[in-house]
Automatic annotation (TrEMBL):
<keyword id="KW-0813">Transport</keyword>
<keyword id="KW-0472">Membrane</keyword>
<keyword id="KW-0812">Transmembrane</keyword>
<feature type="transmembrane region" description="Helical">
    <location>
        <begin position="84"/>
        <end position="107"/>
    </location>
</feature>
<feature type="transmembrane region" description="Helical">
    <location>
        <begin position="43"/>
        <end position="64"/>
    </location>
</feature>
<feature type="transmembrane region" description="Helical">
    <location>
        <begin position="12"/>
        <end position="37"/>
    </location>
</feature>
<keyword id="KW-0349">Heme</keyword>
<keyword id="KW-0249">Electron transport</keyword>
<dbReference type="InterPro" id="IPR011577">
    <property type="entry name" value="Cyt_b561_bac/Ni-Hgenase"/>
</dbReference>
<comment type="similarity">
    <text>Belongs to the cytochrome b561 family.</text>
</comment>
<feature type="transmembrane region" description="Helical">
    <location>
        <begin position="135"/>
        <end position="159"/>
    </location>
</feature>
<protein>
    <submittedName>
        <fullName>Cytochrome B</fullName>
    </submittedName>
</protein>
<dbReference type="InterPro" id="IPR016174">
    <property type="entry name" value="Di-haem_cyt_TM"/>
</dbReference>
<keyword id="KW-1003">Cell membrane</keyword>
<keyword id="KW-0479">Metal-binding</keyword>
<feature type="domain" description="Cytochrome b561 bacterial/Ni-hydrogenase">
    <location>
        <begin position="6"/>
        <end position="168"/>
    </location>
</feature>
<keyword id="KW-1133">Transmembrane helix</keyword>
Length: 169
């Protein structure tokens, strides 16, 4: 069975989300794990909060497209590797959701998006925001691992002559 082609919108949303996720993970781990000046940490936090806030509606749209497409694509039960790929993609979507939701709920100040607009701080309790911060950090590590697995799977397919990356470009 040939898989359904991806729409231009699906591809665009994939790469926009991927770019934002890669930037936010790399920049976030950079300032969290390495000795960095306070002004750099502040700037990275400002950019990450702005980008990921703008990503939320794009990610929801991407999920809706992906699940609608998946619902149309099932003509026969997939083989073991297909089920594994589906499971990893679902885990990616779930983990991204956890990272985004906890990222919002951990905020201890209004969410300012590139100075264009601000959203109020969702929670006032330091205990709650601290708990969400802890979950956010842990889920970022999980997401980084899943992104690594995803990239390795694309490389494996490319080396095996299967054009999965070409289908998403």
């Amino acid at each position: 069975m040939n898989p359904l082609p991806y729409s231009t919108t699906h591809k665009l949303l994939h790469w926009l989300n991927a770019g934002i996720i890669l930037w936010a993970l790399l920049a976030g781990f950079y300032v969290a794990l390495l000795p960095v000046a306070a002004d750099v940490k502040h700037w990275v936090a400002w950019v990450n909060v702005s980008l990921t806030t703008l990503m939320i509606p794009l990610f929801i749209w991407r999920c809706l497209l992906a699940f609608r497409r998946r619902g149309r694509a099932v003509a026969q039960p997939p083989a073991l590797m297909g089920r594994l790929a589906t499971a990893v993609h679902l885990l990616l979507y779930f983990t991204i959701t956890v990272v985004l939701v906890t990222g919002v709920l951990m905020m201890e100040r209004p969410i300012v998006v590139f100075g264009w607009f601000a959203l109020p701080q969702p929670l006032q309790s330091p205990a709650l925001t601290g708990g969400f911060h802890t979950v956010h950090i842990a889920s970022c590590y999980v997401l980084a691992g899943l992104v690594g697995v995803h990239v390795l799977a694309v490389l494996k397919h490319a080396l095996a002559g299967q054009p999965v990356l070409r289908r998403m470009c």
